């Protein structure tokens, strides 16, 4: 994967204006296996909060850390993950400039959920696209090309083999991937993405403030939200 330097470990402000998937796709392998990646951002939950906004902001970095750990576990067991050979990979022109591709694979090998359930591509899936067959996470450190990708949509008529993915900016070499390349399923982060989006929306904060204000007035901020 091009680039991929570890994210700087320093205290940063609430990432409320940053897209969740953009953040996840920018992680390098080193980032994902770094258990201290967010050590300066994930703090002990205080007994009281300065505002509702402060309260909700306390969930951003724990959510990122949970997602990082989730992907790390999947990468460690990548040899057991569902995978398929890439048949076609065609760029889709998006008005917002995102790198999106129509993907077709042959068929999926391996099941998910400890072999109990056949894998079926779903929006929210994080996959790895690689020009080498992956047997171990260390294979991503070898020569060759790979990238994380996020499944944005599936073909309802043939969801098993046709779907769309979004790849990180700067993944130009991925356009030439064909034939011997593989797609490997890691995790589905749709639930985490929805939580992130809910935390970002200012209208949600206004609604909670309206609910909390009468409670705060009646009980003198007894519930810890100022």
Keywords:
226 residues; alpha+beta; Elongation Factor Tu (Ef-tu), domain 3; 2 domains; six-stranded antiparallel β-barrel; two-stranded antiparallel ribbon; 6 helices; 22% strand; disordered C terminus
Outline of the structure:
This protein is α+β, with helices and mostly antiparallel strands and 226 residues long. It is built from 6 helices and 8 strands.
- Sheet of most strands: 6 strands, antiparallel, barrel
User: Helical percent range?
Assistant: 25-40%
Number of helices: 6
**CATH overall fold name of the largest domain:** Elongation Factor Tu (Ef-tu), domain 3
CATH secondary-structure class of the largest domain: Mainly Beta
Mean pLDDT: 79
Write up this protein.
The protein has 226 residues and is of the alpha+beta class. It folds into two domains: 20-75 and 192-219, no CATH class; 81-188, Elongation Factor Tu (Ef-tu), domain 3, CATH 2.40.30.230. The protein is built from six helices and eight strands; from the N terminus they run H-H-H-H-E-E-E-E-E-E-E-E-H-H. A six-stranded antiparallel barrel has the order 1-2-7-6-5-8. A two-stranded antiparallel ribbon has the order 3-4. Strand 1 (83-92) and strand 2 (99-105) form a beta hairpin. The longest helix has 18 residues, at 202-219. The protein starts with 19 loop residues before the first helix and ends in a 7-residue tail after the last helix. Residues 82-205 form the DUF6469 domain. This is DUF6469 domain-containing protein.
